[in-house]
Amino acid sequence: MSVLVYVEQADGKFKKSVFEAVSYAKAIADNQNTSLTAISIGNVAEGDLKELGKYGASKILNVAADQLKNFVNQAYASVIAEAAKKEGANLIVLSNSFSGKGLAPRVAVKLKAGLVDGAVEMPNFDGGFSVKKTAFSGKAFAITSLTSENKVIALNPNAFGVKENAVDATVENFSPEIKPTDLTAIVKEIVRATNKISLPDAELVVSAGRGLKGPENWGMIEELASLLGAATACSKPVSDADWRPHSEHVGQTGIAISPNLYIAIGISGAIQHLAGVSSSKVIVVINKDPEAPFFKVADYGIVGDAFEVVPKIIAALKAHKG
Amino acid sequence: MLVLLPLIKYIHMKILVCISNVPDTTTKITFTNDNTQFNTAGVQFIVNPYDEIALSRAIELCEGGKGTVTVINVGEVATEPTIRKALAIGADDAVRVNAAPRDAYFTAFQIAEYAKANDFDMILCGRESIDYNGSQVAAMIGEFLDIPSISIIKKLDFDGTTATIEREIEGGKEVVSVTGKFVASCAEGTAEAKIPNMRGIMSARTKPLTVVEAVAIDELGKVTKFETPAPRGAVKLIPAENAENLIGLLHSEAKVI
Ligand SMILES: Cc1cc2nc3c(=O)[nH]c(=O)nc-3n(C[C@H](O)[C@H](O)[C@H](O)COP(=O)(O)OP(=O)(O)OC[C@H]3O[C@@H](n4cnc5c(N)ncnc54)[C@H](O)[C@@H]3O)c2cc1C
Ligand SMILES: Nc1ncnc2c1ncn2[C@@H]1O[C@H](COP(=O)(O)O)[C@@H](O)[C@H]1O
After folding, report:
1. How far apart are CA A202 and CA A158, in angstroms?
2. Are the folds of A3-182 and A199-321 the same?
3. Where does the signal peptide begin and end (chain A) (predicted)?
4. CATH node for A199-321
5. Are the beta carbons of A27 and A162 closer than 8 angstroms?
6. Domains of chain A: which residue ranges?
7. Of A166, A191, A274, B66, which residue is 20 to 30 A from B209 by alpha carbon distance?
């Protein structure tokens, strides 16, 4: 089994989730006694491409065609499928990011490959090939067994971790032909806040709910998040009321996340909220109601008024950081 | 006097909305048969919440006789109440592909086969079904039909020829324009979910619901077992007056900061 990993770039740079996907793909390649090839599409500098060697990619296919500068899943899927054929790769790994979710299914259909999206663990090779993935929006896991010759895995961010495993990396230019019909969708504009930590990738998350009473009280939430280097999130009623943007809404009908630390402030812990956050590694709950259901899944709890508790935590954090 | 007649382009849009039948969001998920099957006992099924958003946007785009909305579900006869709910919300007609939705590959193939034989301007899905597939069906339909697919959208405008779509990306959004047929998977923001009114509920009973048989396709994999998350240990309570102790615990005990 030869392994190919797709390394997604944003503005020519790789994010942590990419190094994580490479680390994961490398672990699979090692297990199967094969080497790992990465494929990058868009304009990434040679030095950044070579850095992928640090995580185990020994060959990097670089597709730098100008018309592929922006992500168009239809064209990117064709390129990845071509690369897989050229490399004889029958396992393709990518990140289960927003773009990955639109890309992996197309690659899978092109290669007639079974697809596991939202993988959270290394595959199990005992008597076959199966992978554990999240299901029921985080309320359960499903072990999916793939029987097809080709396979695609979309790895959840923060599920495997970044592992260094340095190898010599060579960069090879690759210019497959692009069908014009693959470029029907045209990217007109990209708006990205570069100063903010993106929620799906965040290792630390500070989240707040209706207990905060109104959008004017989010200052302390943002301050705590920025001191921690955390992303901010919120419950559904908060984004429904436009106190915060929809992109911060976590839960069953929002984003599902599994950061190392999730701090929930003034959130009751409804089943739909918990679905999206309960696989966080450490959960802290701050709520004035000792009966709030969220305490049942918390590791640390503070029963108290957020408006008194949070400033104390901020002060302690400032002291801790010196 | 010279009367200038505006050039009216006659548009009759046809939109296909894919709906999945999923357990109500309050469902406590459990499994039977040695954890190989989802336990449906006592479970209430609903239209997947994101599909309600997709359907609502489709209805808005077709308002005022500008087009018709067909809903499609791949499912066995037990899903018909969910399909009727979609008709009550305002779809014009419905199709049920008579088969258990084995996986996303199977489901997307059935929908693509139906769409091939019927000329739709756009196909709308939900961002993901809240059971177990996970954001696969829309892009797979796009691939089977060899047309663009835009995943996780939060805005959709259509001027009769070109769709302008906002898609979610990490830390922001991307604006995409598509001319011609496409598939999109809708998330929050695309529309407010509509609630059926009495007239809708009454008329849903008589709207056409066609049943078609599934087309065979190879199986590439399947779910062999389910697991529920391991229970967490007891919560460690920190008195509010010593809230500052949290930082020390997160640093030296939990080792996350
Ligand atoms: C179909 C469907 C899908 C849904 N999907 C989601 C989802 O994806 N995500 C989601 O979050 N919700 C979702 N919900 C909504 C969910 O059921 C809850 O209504 C919601 O999570 C409650 O948000 P909340 O905890 O912020 O508000 P509330 O339930 O109002 O809780 C506020 C909490 O703040 C506490 N509080 C009040 N004042 C203070 C104070 N001064 N200091 C400290 N604590 C205080 C209160 O004790 C209370 O526990 C969904 C609902 C439905 C029907
Ligand atoms: N059985 C089904 N029948 C019709 N549409 C479906 C079915 N399953 C999924 N879909 C559609 O595909 C979307 C994404 O589902 P999934 O890929 O399963 O997460 C859903 O929101 C629906 O719009």
Report:
1. 8
2. yes
3. none
4. 3.40.50.1220
5. no
6. 3-182, 199-321
7. B66
Which helix H or strand E contains A105, and what residues bound it? helix A98-110
CA B136 – ligand 2 centroid, Å: 8
Q: Give, using CA atoms, the residue closest to atom 7 of ligand 1.
A: A251
Residues of chain B contacting A149 with CB distance shorter than 8 Å? none
pLDDT tens per residue, chain B (257 residues)? 555 555 444 568 999 999 999 999 999 999 999 999 999 999 999 999 999 999 999 999 999 999 999 999 999 999 999 999 999 999 999 999 999 999 999 999 999 999 999 999 999 999 999 987 689 999 999 999 999 999 999 999 999 899 999 999 988 999 999 999 999 999 999 999 999 999 999 999 999 999 999 999 999 999 999 999 888 899 999 999 999 999 999 999 999 99
H, E, C per residue of A204-250? EEEEECHHHCCHHHCHHHHHHHHHHCCEEEECHHHHHCCCCCHHHEE
Among all chains, which residue has been given the structure tokens 């609502």?
B56
| Rounded Cα gap, residues B101 and A81, in angstroms | 26
| CA gap B75, A176 in Å, rounded | 40
CATH architecture of A3-182: 3-Layer(aba) Sandwich (3.40)
The binding site of A for FAD consists of: 210, 266-273, 287
